[in-house]
Write a structure and sequence with these properties.
Mean pLDDT: 96
Structural class: alpha/beta
Bound molecules: farnesyl diphosphate
Distance between the termini: 30 Å
Number of helices: 8
Radius of gyration: 19 Å
Strand order of the largest sheet: 3-4-2-1-5-6
Strand content: 5-15%
Oligomer: single chain
Low-confidence stretches: none
Length: 256
């Protein structure tokens, strides 16, 4: 954990930090960033303005996570289902994500963050793939928080890709299907070095998991807030972390 500079937080957020046990933070937090469209619509603005406002929250939560000493933060930025949105919205989102990556990578690097992509590469614009590649190349040796942007991601697609990999190994005689373990499946996922999320946060109040990290969230604690993503800042993030620290995790066992 680095030295925590409280000056970067608002007074309300600072008060919550004093309640937090920084040694017992969730190792991995995954977030479903929802509500950009509603945020814009409520103000009579085009949906893309909501996505732009959402970028501010991405920056704020990235900084808060890195400063608190979080191990992993995974942000659901674009699902495979999002391709079915109107073409201009898809183009705007791709442009925003690429622009944010290009603009913020140096800033994230300075905070010791490792930036990487989670999801399928096929179908993504070449320029975005180049930005993701450059971000990873610059930051891969950092030792701070790992920030994963889930882009062109779906939990079922990830499991399907893992199943194909395992089936190929079995067909080549490298793997005995009868001896397959849960660890083998975990090891065939996109980033097997990443621990399962301890905490899953969803904004905008919907009570569903939307094809996100389906294998990995088996025992994640879930925190849902009615706040829309552009209104979600370090304060709400800290509220989720404090709530998490009051939970008793059972993993299917009877608590001792
Ligand atoms: C959900 O809101 C949000 C998304 C589909 C995209 C998330 C993208 C960002 C926060 C912007 C850029 C991201 C990065 C990584 C810089 P919605 O459009 O589904 O909202 P609605 O449910 O209210 O319509």
């Amino acid at each position: 954990m680095g030295t925590l500079n409280l000056d970067t937080f608002t007074p309300e957020a600072r008060a919550l930090i004093t309640e937090l046990d920084l040694a017992r933070l969730p190792h991995h937090v995954a977030i479903i960033m929802d509500g950009n469209g509603r945020w814009a619509t409520q103000q009579g603005l085009p949906r893309v303005i909501g996505h732009r406002a959402g970028v501010e929250s991405v920056r704020n939560i990235m900084e808060a996570g890195a400063d608190l000493g979080l191990g992993y933060l995974t942000l659901y930025s674009f699902s495979t289902e999002n391709w079915s949105r109107p073409e201009d919205e898809v183009t705007a989102l791709m442009g925003l994500i690429e622009h944010h990556l290009r603009e913020e990578t140096t800033h994230m690097h300075a905070r010791g963050v490792r930036v990487r992509h989670l999801g399928r590469t096929a179908g993504l614009p070449e320029s975005l793939l180049a930005a993701l590649h450059d971000a990873w190349e610059l930051t891969k040796h950092n030792t701070g928080m790992t920030l994963q942007f889930a882009i062109n991601y779906s939990g079922r697609a990830e499991l399907l890709d893992a199943a194909r990999r395992l089936a190929t190994a079995a067909a080549a005689g490298e793997l005995d299907p009868a001896a397959l373990t849960e660890q083998d499946v975990s090891a065939a996922l996109y980033h097997p070095d990443v621990p399962d999320p301890d905490l899953l946060i969803r904004t905008a109040g919907e009570l569903r998991v939307s094809n996100y990290l389906l294998w990995q969230i088996a025992y994640s604690e879930i925190w849902v807030t009615p706040d829309l993503w552009p209104d979600f800042r370090a304060l709400q993030f800290l509220q989720a972390l404090c709530d998490y620290q009051h939970r008793q995790r059972k993993f299917g066992r009877v608590p001792s």
